[in-house]
Design brief:
Layout (H helix, E strand, L loop, with lengths): L10 H4 L6 E6 L3 H10 L49 E11 L9 E15 L2 E14 L2 E13 L25 E5 L3 H10 L10 H6 L10 H15 L3 E10 L9 E8 L2 E7 L5 E11 H6 L5
Antiparallel strand pairs: 1-3, 2-5, 2-7, 3-4, 4-5, 6-8, 7-10, 8-9, 9-10
Helix pairs in contact: 2-3
Length: about 300
């Protein structure tokens, strides 16, 4: 199959990466978590022996390629663990995870990653390559986090174009509207710090000239994982006596650093519906989560 710019895509060759695994080990140093707490303006900083908050596992087990192993967009070059996609534009489109036991800071953990599937599909914007990666994180011989990451590759745009129509956010007065909302004002410092803490050198998050003139975004792009983390952070503030044990998210529309946006949520029983809203009233990311009592978790011998 070829894309709309005639990039050849040998899907059978790329499917040869299915089942490929890699194992990594990390000491879960408290510093990255303490630094992210600063980004999120937390009064209390994580400490050794404390539980790692949801989404913060993305601070660890990082791919740290050399300059020669880095693509022109700042992403690690493909063809190692990830298949060598001929479609250059990469995004983390969606994901989900379950926290079976909270990870404990300062204790060594092991992560096993596996390429679950590689698929080619035709979308409204052209051909898309989907790569699904499964991650298991264990500590002290026990599985703690089970996660699936959905990566999408697409063609690089050839010129600027308007963003596609977005989904309007639900009104607060309806039974699907927000029960709480917080305003976030992104800026290049926030985006740089999150890029540094996650070793994410994709230039759309810190190089304004590249973002605007090469990938044709109107401004710097707020990281999808950062949006997901802000949603989880907001939920944790709302319900401090409980913890998130499942979380899933899907990107709907890019969010940029030139305007404030809101993180919103509502609760129904132990289930949370979460979303972000940009300054035009469109949904940027949707997420869902379930809560469990933090006290009951601790009574089962899990770290607090």
């Amino acid at each position: 199959m070829t894309s709309n710019t005639e990039t050849p895509i040998d899907i059978e060759y790329l499917k040869g990466w299915e089942g490929k695994t890699i194992q990594l080990e990390d000491g879960l140093s408290p510093f990255p978590a303490q630094a992210l707490a600063g980004v999120f303006n937390r009064d209390e900083r994580p400490h050794p022996g404390g539980a790692l908050p949801p989404c913060w596992q993305w601070l660890y087990f990082l791919d740290t390629p050399s300059g020669a192993g880095t693509g022109a967009d700042g992403h690690p070059a493909t063809g190692g663990f990830l298949p060598p996609s001929p479609l250059p534009r990469r995004m983390w489109a969606a994901g989900k995870f379950s926290i079976l036991r909270p990870l404990e800071l300062g204790q060594t953990a092991q992560k096993t990653s596996r390429i679950a599937s590689v698929d080619l599909k035709a979308g409204k914007s052209g051909v898309l390559l989907f790569v699904n990666v499964e991650h298991d994180i264990a500590q002290a011989g026990q599985l703690c986090v089970r996660e699936t990451q959905n990566i999408v590759y697409r063609e690089m745009p050839q010129s600027a174009a308007p963003l596609p129509p977005g989904e309007s956010a639900p009104e607060d007065k309806t039974d699907i509207g927000a029960q709480w909302r917080e305003t976030i004002t992104p800026d290049p410092v926030m985006l740089f710090r999150y890029s540094a803490l996650t070793y994410n050198s994709h230039r759309i998050h810190y190089d304004r000239d590249y973002a605007v003139n090469t990938e044709f975004y109107p401004a710097l792009v707020v990281h999808g994982p950062l949006l997901a983390s802000l949603l989880a952070e907001s939920a944790s503030r709302q319900f401090p006596g409980e913890r998130i044990d499942t979380f899933s998210f899907r990107a709907q529309r890019p969010t940029f650093d030139d305007q404030p946006f809101q993180v919103c949520g509502r609760r129904d029983g132990d289930k949370l519906t979460l979303w972000t809203v940009d300054h035009e009233g469109f949904v940027g990311m949707k997420a869902s989560a379930t809560l469990t009592s933090a006290a009951s978790s601790n009574s089962e011998g899990e770290p607090s």
